[in-house]
Specification:
Order of helices and strands: EEEHEHHEHEEEEHEH
Helix content: 25-40%
Distance between the termini: 33 Å
Structural class: alpha/beta
CATH superfamily of the largest domain: Spore Coat Polysaccharide Biosynthesis Protein SpsA, Chain A
Number of helices: 6
CATH architecture of the largest domain: Alpha-Beta Complex
Number of domains: 2
Strand order of the largest sheet: 4-1-5-9-6-10
Radius of gyration: 19 Å
Shape: globular
Length: 234
């Protein structure tokens, strides 16, 4: 079976209750649940949470909450890998045959059903211990990044050897888009580095936005409203 696991703990600090806060007319987590449902990829869509209110919202929007996440996996230091591994262990304990597991973040309102489906198709072509994840290009060349000296307030280049090079001559760099991660259960249990040797599903920058601050949230809502006018061929 293919399973979608949406991790959603209750203790978000920077944006309190952000997993169920209203975002463009529905709880934030509802966007992820609906994208997973529309993808047609999953036998089950579950939410891994330690929070009763989040569990209730998830159930109302059609996800399942077959267990409550233990407290040791719900603090500020809990990583994604052990949370998904916990869900995999739970399924294996009950004798379920997992083929593929997708971690879909609760704060991924720009995840598209077609991308989730494409990610699964890509997974079937990669090695058993590799991941498929969403990524996008940095807007500016990272080779020309600047650092700020906290003492003097002056700036310096991280890589000054690239000062005279044209932007178009520098190798493009990419970063995690933070939407979803496909892998087989073995990879989740092995706690592998997602970003070593795996395959990225590249997204345009205008469909990627971290939501870690109130400013991020406001910008993401503007993006979501703009994307509601999106033409399919974009």
């Amino acid at each position: 079976m293919n399973v979608c696991v949406i991790p959603a703990r209750g203790g978000s600090k920077r944006i309190p209750r952000k997993n169920i806060r209203e975002f463009c007319g529905k709880p934030m987590i509802a966007w992820s649940i609906e994208a997973a449902q529309a993808s047609g990829c999953f036998d089950q869509i579950i939410v891994s949470t330690d929070d009763v209110e989040i569990a209730d919202v998830a159930l109302r929007w059609g996800a399942e909450v077959p267990f409550m996440r233990p407290a040791e996996l719900a603090d500020d230091f809990a990583g994604t890998m052990p949370v998904i591994a916990h869900a995999v262990h739970w399924y294996q304990h009950y004798g379920q045959d997992l083929k593929a597991v997708c971690c879909l973040y609760a704060t991924a309102p720009f995840a598209k059903p077609a991308d989730i489906k494409q990610g699964l198709e890509m997974l079937m072509k990669v090695a058993i211990d590799r991941f498929v994840f969403t990524a996008t290009a940095y807007a500016s060349p990272i080779q020309r990044a600047l650092r700020l000296d906290q003492g003097s307030g002056e700036v310096y280049m991280w890589q000054s050897e690239h000062y005279s090079k044209r932007s178009q001559d520098l190798e493009p760099a990419y970063h995690d888009a933070g939407q979803f991660y496909w892998a087989r259960p073995q990879a989740w249990l092995a706690s592998l580095n997602i970003f070593e040797g795996s395959m990225p599903l590249l997204l345009p920058r205008w469909r990627v936005q971290d939501i870690d601050s109130h400013e991020d949230w406001a910008y993401a809502e503007l993006m979501r409203r703009a994307l509601s006018l999106e033409v399919d061929h974009y």
